C-alpha cells in the first residue's frame, strides 16, 4: 500500500514539473509571438514614417512616431513581465509558492502590464487628436488598453493573495 502512495506522489510531482515546464514554454512562445508582432508593427510604422516624411504629412509623421514609441514601451514592459513570470515559475517548480519574492514578482508583473496599458491609452488619446478617421483602429487600441489594465488588475490581486497566504504560512510555521 505504501508503494502505491509513493507512486501516486511521484507521478503527481512529475505532472507538476511538466506543468511548470509547459508554463515556461508558453511564456517563451508568447514572447516570440509578441516580438514578431512588434517587429511587424515597427516595419509598418517605419514605412508610414518614411511615406509621411516623403510627402511632408505632419499627421502621418506624428501618428507613426506615436505608434513606434508605443510599440517600444509595450515591448519592453511585456518582456519584463515575461522574464519575471518565468523566474517565478522556476521558484514555484521548486516548491516556493507563498513567498515575498513571488509577491514582488506579481506586483512587478502588474506594474509592467499597467504601464503597457497606460502607454496604449496615451497613444489612443494622441492618435484620436491626430487622425480622427481611423475609428476602428481606435476601438482596437482602447480594447487592448482595457485588456492590459484588466490583466494587471488580476496580477495585482494575485500578488495580494500571495502576500496574505505568505503571512498565514509564516504564522503557521511559527505556531508549529
Low-confidence stretches: none
**Proportion of residues in extended strands:** under 5%
Mean pLDDT: 89
By DSSP, the count of extended strands is 0
Number of helices: 4
Order of helices and strands: HHHH
Structural class: mainly alpha
Using only C-alpha atoms, the radius of gyration works out to 22 Å
Helical coverage, percent range: over 70%
Per the principal axes of the C-alpha atoms, what is the gross shape? elongated
Largest sheet: none
Q: For the terminal residues, how far apart are their CA atoms?
A: 29 Å
What would you call the quaternary organization? Answer: single chain
Describe, in plain words, how this protein is organized in 3D.
The protein is mainly alpha-helical. It has helices spanning 2-54, 58-93, 100-130, 135-175. 20% of the residues are buried.
Amino acid at each position: 500500500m505504501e508503494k502505491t502512495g509513493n507512486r501516486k506522489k511521484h507521478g503527481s510531482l512529475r505532472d507538476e514539473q511538466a506543468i511548470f515546464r509547459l508554463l515556461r514554454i508558453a511564456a517563451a512562445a508568447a514572447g516570440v509571438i509578441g516580438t514578431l508582432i512588434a517587429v511587424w508593427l515597427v516595419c509598418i510604422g517605419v514605412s508610414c514614417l518614411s511615406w509621411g516624411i516623403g510627402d511632408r504629412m505632419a499627421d502621418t509623421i506624428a501618428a507613426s512616431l506615436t505608434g513606434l514609441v508605443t510599440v517600444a514601451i509595450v515591448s519592453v514592459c511585456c518582456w519584463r513581465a515575461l522574464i519575471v513570470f518565468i523566474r517565478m515559475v522556476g521558484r514555484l517548480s521548486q516548491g516556493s509558492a507563498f513567498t515575498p519574492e513571488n509577491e514582488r514578482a506579481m506586483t512587478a508583473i502588474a506594474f509592467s502590464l499597467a504601464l503597457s496599458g497606460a502607454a496604449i491609452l496615451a497613444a489612443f488619446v494622441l492618435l484620436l487628436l491626430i487622425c480622427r478617421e481611423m475609428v476602428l483602429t481606435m476601438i482596437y487600441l482602447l480594447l487592448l488598453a482595457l485588456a492590459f489594465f484588466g490583466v494587471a488588475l488580476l496580477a495585482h490581486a494575485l500578488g495580494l493573495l500571495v502576500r496574505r497566504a505568505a503571512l498565514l504560512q509564516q504564522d503557521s510555521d511559527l505556531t508549529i
